[in-house]
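Entry type: protein chain
Record version: 2
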Amino acid sequence: MAETIETRLISHHVGARGFVVAMDAPKHFENDIVHVTYEADAACAAAMQEKCDRPNYHILPYALGRGDGPATLHVTANPYGSSLYRPSASYANWYGEVYPPVGVYDAIFGAWAKVERETPIRTASLDALFAEGKIPVAAGPDFLSLDTQGSEADIIEGAARTIEGSVLAIATEIEFHPIYDSQPLFSRILDRLRPMGFHFAGFLHIADEISPRRAPVGQRGRGFLAFGDALFLRRIEDLPRMAAGDDAKLCVLAFKAAFIGVVFGFIEYALDALDLAMKLGPAHAPPALRERAFFDMLEALDKARLRMQPLLLPTQPYTAPSPAAEIREDPFAKSRIARAWRRARTAVMVEVRLLYDQLNRYIDSLPHRRIRHLIWQRPHEALLRIAVYFMRFVHAKVIRIGETSPYYGMSTAFEQVLHSYGLHWVAATVRRRRLRAIRALAEAGRA
């Protein structure tokens, strides 16, 4: 029945130390997402439960794995490196540069991964926990994220039934070097998730590099790609199978898949899912779904894209642009604001835009703090936030000409919707790709 369908997005995160989750959507959607997290270190889980005051955040003291059985948790000097796998002695002298918000230092693997204590525990599979009714939220996860320092492939094996039945996206830490003894690498996860119905969407974070030799500054080049985070998205054509003939459930799954795609910046994937939801029609959307902020955002995006004039690039190189790709005159092109903007678009402004995009992502990734508290505690962060908020105000309120046409250099209605829901870096990505394509077509027309 439609009324029994869970319209909130259920996010499960394994490796919850520090309250870190991969599905970190803007605060506009905090009532739409339920976080179920797992922490293998029972002492850490208990401390987190005492501090947690979020009604939609659950902390479970379970060590997930392939199945039920004894295991050893290796708690390391840097507790975020703790793992069911023992750190590899062959990587003890390898290092990587770490850039915190202030400063820089070398992290020596053998030092931060030194085992401080070994705790005997028991692992459980996610499938078994659901079967035994040990999960506080009855509905299966829509989003599954894993950060367990090497045991991610084991957890996926132990959650096969759960993943098959409900999971729309998986974000997982991946490694390219076996920094833990006998740990599965990225290739194992990739080969396992593809036949389960997932696209490899891309790397969410892939900047971590390590080197076997610690050279002085000035003698360092590229490091070896070590680890990062990868995102896998459910194939849209697999959603009808998951819905099992229930149009209301299919509608909810499609909206959730679209929301996940938008949050992570995969707009075309999101629009593919949104097309499926809109084909079903509003009548199939449960009333509870219409109350969700992500439903309102996706409806607004759908209306904005339908109002936009289509701009399609040529489908083959070295051919004349199709009529839809012709660069037409901007009716605001002769305005004083537009002329001033064009004069300011120099190489310096290009760098400013890149900096603005980076600041957007950085600020959005930080915990929500009040400016008045930051002024005394972290003044540099307060200044960055003020600068970003000012630039956002300019984009949202002042530079708001040309809401429907992709030919304008300012924000479109589609980008304005993303801004209004706090998805600033996603809006910046859409705008950057749009302007790059328009400039390239204009240059080709002048050549």
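Comment: Confidence is low (pLDDT under 50) at residues 324-333, 346-350, 398-403.
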